[in-house]
Structures are given as structure tokens and as C-alpha cells.
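Aim 2 progress update. The chain analyzed this quarter is reproduced below.
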Amino acid sequence: MTQEPGGTPARVVVADDQTVVREGIVMLLGLLPGVEVVGAAGDGEEAVRLVAELAPDVVLMDLRMPRCDGVEATRRIRSEHPGTQVVVLTTYADDASVFPALRAGARGYLTKDAGGDEIVRAVHGVLSGDAGLAPSIQRRLLERLSGSASQPRHAGPPEPPDGLTARETEVLVLIAEGLNNTQIASRLQVSTATVKTHINNLFAKTGVKDRAQAVRYAYGEGLVRPAGG
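Predicted C-alpha cells:
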């Protein structure tokens, strides 16, 4: 959906830590009717600040950003500024990225191969009360809901157990996938010290003593599944 004749364009903030990508999105949206880019942020912390200052209708939110990632920024924006909706616009479409973002309050989720018209439709869709989801994400949600309806609760990926935060759960999943601390830090775009802090916290919360136990815990809680499972 694009701007109605005589209508007011949706006011948008773009948040992405890659300057070329951020400027490209801003330039693309500037060529399209129905949206007005009112601000651009280089990380989640700046995105939260701009929302407080500008009160935009929608934030287009990248996920992997320094200081404050997209999931945490989404959670803060939806809690502190409920009048602003969030549409995730990211390279990542894996479950460990999609579902934490949606749980944090994102109403839309697009990957960066989306065209300008698709982005505008998603922006206006969430403002109309719809979910601005890429078709592949919609299918994943339907599969998740279908599986939850037909399988025992523990068979589907549950909410983070034992008080784990979304980021701690994400680190746990990456441990279960066989990544070391350096690889996890690179994937999440944080320091290895931050990764170690998350690991110490999740070990304490879950009661595991080492990475092998953490892997067993992740599979036992349904956070990851065996290949082909």
C-alpha cells in the first residue's frame, strides 16, 4: 500500500550500522511515495534516542548492530514508545533471528532483498494493524503454529527457559551449532568479552557446567533440533 492521494506519508527512521546500506535505504525510500525518512541511526542505541526525539511512525530496524542490537532496541522502543511500530529489515532470516525479534514487538520482518515497494507496503501495513512479513517468514510462522498445534509443547521451540534473555538464548543456540566464542562474537557483532559474559550468565541460570552440557540442554529444551528433525 502506498500513500493515498492527499494523505500524509508515514514518518520513518532507518537503523542500520552499515553506512552504505543505511544511505542506500534512505535514498531508495526518498524516491517512493507514501514514506518520509525523518532520521537515520547507526546502532540500536541511536535508534531509541531518535524515536524519543522524533516520534516516527515506523522504524526500519537492522538486527546485528553494535552497542544495542536490533532485538533489544525493538523491545525498548515498543515498551517506551508504543506509538512507534518496528519493521525488521535485515540480512538474516534464521529462526534465531526471526522469533526473538517478533517476540520483542516487531510487527514486520523483511530481508534486505526486498524491493522498495515491498518495504513501503510493510510500513503502511503495520500502521494499519497488519503484519508486514515477507512471504518466507509468513510460511515459517504458519509452520511453527501448525507444529505447536499438533505436537507436545516441548516439541516446538519454546520461550527462553530458566529466565534466559533473548541474547543469552541466541548465544546458547550458537554454542549448540558448534561455534566457538570468536565465531559467536563475529556472528553477533559483539566482543568476545561480551560473549563470555553471556555464557557465564546462561551457565549460571541453566546449571550447566561446560559447553557439552550446554549443547545437551539446548537440544533438551527444543531450542535446536537435530538435522532433518
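The longest strand covers residues 35-41. The beta strands are 10-15, 35-41, 58-61, 85-90, 108-111, 132-133. These observations will guide the mutagenesis experiments scheduled for the next reporting period.
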